[in-house]
Amino acid sequence: MINLQEQISLFKIIGSQLKNKVECVAIGGSALMFYGAKITTKDVDLVLLKREDLETVKNVLFHSGFDERKNIKGIFREDEDMVKPIMMGGKDTRFDLFLNEVIGFKIHEKIIERIKEVHEFGNFKVNIASPEDILMMKGCTEREKDRDDAAELIKKFNINWDIILDETSNQAKIGIAAFPILLYDFLTEIRDNYKLDVPKKITKELLSIASKRIKELRKKGKLIKVTKY
Fold first, then answer.
1. Could you point out which of 35, 53, 57, 130 has its C-alpha 20 to 30 Å from the C-alpha of 101?
2. Please, what's the b/e burial string for 195-206 (b: 16 or more CB within 10 A of its CB; e: otherwise)?
3. Between the CA of residue 39 and those of 35, 42, 158, 172, 182, what are the distances in Å?
4. What is the pLDDT of residues 128-174, one digit of tens each?
């Protein structure tokens, strides 16, 4: 586990070793610490936008004492065909490096436009994903700590639910077709277990989006495949 200052120190090390400017999007606990919504994190989750940048950061981490971890059981199902992150493990934390998507959730121009904060550490530019996008990415998972993080996001921020609905509809087309169902289950559980104000009209609309997408796929003779992280 590391705190915000320790994470910043790691980012400074990366930035000092980069020969050219590299840009990434911080998500998960890494972003939540910048927002003051989390004190420590075990995984530093970063999305790289270019393959060469991902490989560059991976190499910098390797030369800084991090080793690539493979065949980690219990994290991915073997039948998942989505792009999996590169995991670089260190003594106190692990870097999960994603390329343009997070467990099937696609990173695109509008997500970049919703960036709330930008921090530069030498040649390392770290963009902090919006609370809405972090919340949706956590909806692709089934880890208990992600529910805790999502609850903190809803408590701390005035979530723009219109963004949630618009992006869910988009992700159902460009990412995981079953995303509206996953997010419905996720938000319903958070509302019931944490007693938070997740509008019922929002969860109802998520089901409507899911139903519409299922009908579209059935017409094309396709099936929805549900996978979780």
1. 35
2. eeebeeebbebb
3. 10, 11, 20, 33, 27
4. 999 999 999 998 876 788 999 999 999 999 999 999 999 999 999 99
pTM: 0.90
23: nearest Cα among 77, 100, 92: 100
* Neighbour-count burial of 170, counting CB atoms closer than 10 A to its CB (0-12 exposed, 13-18 middle, 19+ buried): middle
Token pair of 181 as six digits:
């169902």
Instruction: Provide CB contacts within 8 A for 226, sequence distance 6+.
Output: 178, 181, 182
Residue 3 amino acid letter: N
Q: Can you list the alpha helix ranges (DSSP code H) found in the chain?
A: 4-17, 28-35, 51-62, 109-113, 131-138, 144-156, 161-174, 179-194, 200-219
Cα 102 from Cα 95, distance rounded (Å) = 14
Q: Is the distance from CB of 118 to CB of 150 less than 8 angstroms? A: no
Distance between CA atoms of 112 and 98, rounded to whole angstroms?
A: 15
122 token code pair: 């030498």
- CA–CA dist 168, 188 (Å, integer): 15
